Amino acid sequence: MGLDFTVIPQYMDIILWGALWTILITLGAAVVSFVGGIVLAVIALYGPTPVRLPFRIFSFLFMGTPLLLQLFLIYFGLVQIGIDVPAFMAGIIGLGLHFAVYNSELFQTGILAVDTGQIEAARTLGLSRMQALRKVVVPQAIRDVIPPIGNNMIALLKDSALVSVIGVSELTLSAQRAIGSTYRPFEFYVLVAVIYYIINIFMEAAQRRIERRVQASR
Amino acid sequence: MTDQKPFVDIRHAKKSYGTLEVLKDINLQVQKGQIVAIIGPSGSGKSTLLRAINDLDPLTGGEVWLEDKQINKKLPHRQYEAHINQVRQEIGMVFQHFNLFPHLRVRENVTLAPKMLKGITDAEADKLAEEQLDKVGMLERIDHYPSQLSGGQKQRVAIARALAMNPKVMLFDEATSALDPELVEEVNLVMKKLAEEHMTMIIVTHEMSFAESVCDRVLFMDQGVVVEEGPPEVIFRNPTSDRTKEFLRKHLAGQHP
Ligand SMILES: Nc1ncnc2c1ncn2[C@@H]1O[C@H](COP(=O)(O)OP(=O)(O)OP(=O)(O)O)[C@@H](O)[C@H]1O
Ligand SMILES: [Mg+2]
């Protein structure tokens, strides 16, 4: 049997809903990974020792084990101890924390690269260390690591396909469902690949825009 | 003058890095409204002394007082942090490399600390920024980023930023050393203006003619000690110590006429 793309329009609404879920999960997880990454970075660098150690272990676990396993653990595992996380939330939390750990590494490098004169100037004005970090150091660190963070966010988009395994009807799972009734894997996988690519293009455009906007603040 | 209670009082200041003694029993009393210049060769401890005043480089011995408050008093960590943050609000500092916040516009550079620490409203903050920037001649650049300014302009904004906290004393650590020669004067003029307003100032500088024209007193430091101190006309015209003479001779020889 040859290729037949005419089956697509009939399933387009399922696919577009899937795309919407993919975008929502990616955005949600991006926010978690961004904020979480900053918090983890500040704790790793400046937290009191008794707090630092558990966070180190946490980071190590999230970096050293497969994301797939983490998603299973959050979705299927936590129920056993009475924490019932809806699949969509489990996806956001799993992806978000996983990438928070990666982002944290970048933020730490960024924070350490900010000139010490910046902290000195802030402290001299009377700001506490936390205030200086929050208002002076971290914003500059964020500005400086936008490109690699952007790369992580694109990796996050791609890895969001993994949440299909816990039953979130995002793009990949929607495609599989359409394929299940049409037996047209090539057509739908190509379609979905194109949609991922389009989302990707928008994300890269957003990143470039942000970078242009912070250009003057260097 | 000496029977008056000093405004800034540094007593028996000592500082070592490991076995290297950087400050060896330094005493410095500054009266309210007085302007003191600290001069001396590179590595003599000028910055270390200045930075000990607001505890950026804590002393290993001795005391620093501002009016009736000991700045470097022994306190448990948390209490000390609260204390030092309070004290630092009263001490303005200007750095050789400006250390403006590059991610903030000129306006926010000036208002960041007053807004966070003094709880002023946005309207008050705007007024404060305009006042202080006008004072240093930088009002037109209020909405620029530091990267869009020249070195001299940056330093003037840095001075406005320090002044916005309404400090009791201003510390300058070679405020013009990083500037192109043609930009030095605009910063010096701002400092002169502060002098006319009787701001208490301690100025580390390599510019002897500037020191001579604005300062009430000059300290010559070498190898962690105050070798000689006195009014500028004495230190610059009739120094008694050979080390001072030697330093001035070398220094003036290397300077622009
Ligand atoms: N963090 C540090 N660790 C070790 N030694 C230091 C440190 N900071 C300063 N020193 C040393 O302390 C001495 C005094 O330094 P300081 O910066 O106070 O000199 P200075 O008079 O300001 O010199 P300059 O005119 O070059 O600015 C120098 O020998 C310097 O190498
Ligand atoms: Mg110095």
Automatic annotation (TrEMBL), chain A:
PROSITE patterns: ABC_TM1. Its main location: membrane. The keyword Membrane applies. Residues 19-207 form the ABC transmembrane type-1 domain. It is found in: Cell inner membrane; Cell membrane. The chain crosses the membrane at residues 20-46, 58-79, 85-102, 186-203. GO terms for cellular component: ATP-binding cassette (ABC) transporter complex. It is a multi-pass membrane protein. One of its GO terms (molecular function) is transmembrane transporter activity. Pfam families: BPD_transp_1. Keywords: Amino-acid transport, Cell membrane, Membrane, Transmembrane, Transmembrane helix, Transport. SUPFAM superfamilies: MetI-like. NCBIfam families: HEQRo_perm_3TM. Belongs to the binding-protein-dependent transport system permease family. HisMQ subfamily. This is Polar amino acid transport system permease protein.
TrEMBL record, chain B:
Keywords: Amino-acid transport, ATP-binding, Cell membrane, Membrane, Nucleotide-binding, Transport. The keyword ATP-binding applies. One of its GO terms (molecular function) is ATP binding. It is found in: Cell membrane. InterPro entries: AAA+_ATPase, ABC_ATPase_HisP-typ, ABC_transporter-like_ATP-bd, ABC_transporter-like_CS, MetN_ABC_transporter-like, P-loop_NTPase. One of its GO terms (cellular component) is plasma membrane. It comes from the Bacteria. Residues 8-248 form the ABC transporter domain. It holds the Pfam family ABC_tran. It is a peripheral membrane protein. Belongs to the ABC transporter superfamily. This is Polar amino acid transport system ATP-binding protein.
